[in-house]
Amino acid sequence: MTLVYDFSTVPHYLQIIKKNIFLKHSSQVPVSVCxxxxxxxxxxxxxxxxxxxxxxxxxxxxxxxxNQTDSLQCTKCPWEMWPNPTQDHCxxxxxxxxxxEDPLGTTLMATGISxxxxxxxxxxxxxxxxxxxxxxANNYSxxxxxxxxxxxxxxxxxxxxxxxxYKVCPLRQVTFGIVxxxxxxxxxxxTIMVVIAFKATRPGSQLRKWTRPRxxxxxxxxxxxxxxxxxxxxxTFSPPFLELKSESNSGVLIIQCNEGSPLAFWSxxxxxxxxxxxxxxxxxxxxxxxxxxxxxxFITFRMLAxxxxxxxxxxxxxxxxxxxxxxMEIFAIQSSTWGLVICMFFPKCFIIIFRPDMNSREKLMxxxxxxxx
Length: 373
Fold this sequence. Notes:
Elements: H1 11-21, E1 42-46, E2 55-59, E3 64-65, E4 75-76, E5 81-83, E6 90-92, E7 94-96, H2 103-128, H3 133-136, H4 140-156, H5 169-199, H6 213-237, E8 241-246, E9 252-258, H7 262-285, H8 295-318, H9 323-354, H10 361-372
Parallel strand pairs: 7-9
Antiparallel strand pairs: 1-2, 3-4, 5-6, 8-9
Helix pairs in contact: 2-4, 2-9, 4-5, 4-9, 5-6, 5-7, 6-7, 7-8, 8-9
C-alpha cells in the first residue's frame, strides 16, 4: 500500500520545507546536480563510481569541436577546416605556399632578379670586347647564347614563387627543364668543341670541318629537342596539377603543384644529369689539353658543382614538403646557376677588366706555345 502525502493541506509544512531548501541570506536556488554544465568545446564523460547524473567535462580531441553546451560527443571538422582555439566551431585552415609576401619568398625573388642581371652584364662586356682574343678564342656566339640561358635560369626560379595556379603548375617544371637543357647543352657543345679544336690542329686531321659554329648549334638543338619531347609526353599523358594537401593532425592546408607523373619528372632531371655527366667526363679527360684559358678545366669545375648541388637536392626535397620543398628547388636552381657563372665567366671577366695586358694575341700565342712545349 502506497501512502501519498498532500502537503498543500498543511501550510506550516510548506514553511518548514522552504526554510530547509532555501539558503539563508541568499536569493539563489542551489543546483541539484553533482557536476556543472560542460561549455562548448567540451563533451560529457561519465565518472566512475558516481551516480549517472555525475559526469566530468573533457576537452574535444584535436581536430574536433563541440558547439553546444553539455555535448555528449565531439564532431570532426571538414578536411579543409580546423577548430578554433576554444574548439566550439570550425574555421578555414591556414593556407601554406611560398608567397611573394613571405620573407623567404621575397628573399628568393630578389635574389633571382638581381642574379639574372649578372649574365646580362657579362653579355654586354663580351659584346664590347668581342674582337679581343679571350672572347673570340672561346666560341663567342656560343658563349653569348650560354649567358642568355643562364639569365633565363635565374628568372625561371620566379615561376615557383606565388600561389600555384592551375595554369602555372603544368609550366613550372617544364620551363625549368627546357631552360636548363639549353644551358647544359651549350656547355656540352663548348666542351666537345674544345676537344675537336685541339684535335683539328694536328697535321692531316679530318676534324677541321667539324670546328664550324654550325656543329655546336646542331649539338645544342639536338639536346634541347630531346628534352622538349620528354616534356611534351609529360604534359600529354600526366601533366602537373594543383593539389590541396591537408594533414589529418594539422591546422595547415598545403597548396602545392603535384608533379603528376613522378616518372616523367625524374626522367627530366635524369636527362639533365646525363648531359651534365657527359660534359663533366669529356672536360675531365680534356683538362690537360694545351688550352690557353683552361676552358676544359673550368668546365670540369662547374659541372662538378652542378652535379653536387642537384645530387644533394634529391634527399633534401624528399624530406621536406610545402613551401620549404619549393624553396629547396629554387635554391638548387640559383646555386647551380651561380656555380656555372662563376666557374665559366668570372676568370675571363677578371682578365678583360683587370688584366687587359693578357688579353692580346701575342700573349695568347706565347702561352699556347709554352703549353705545347
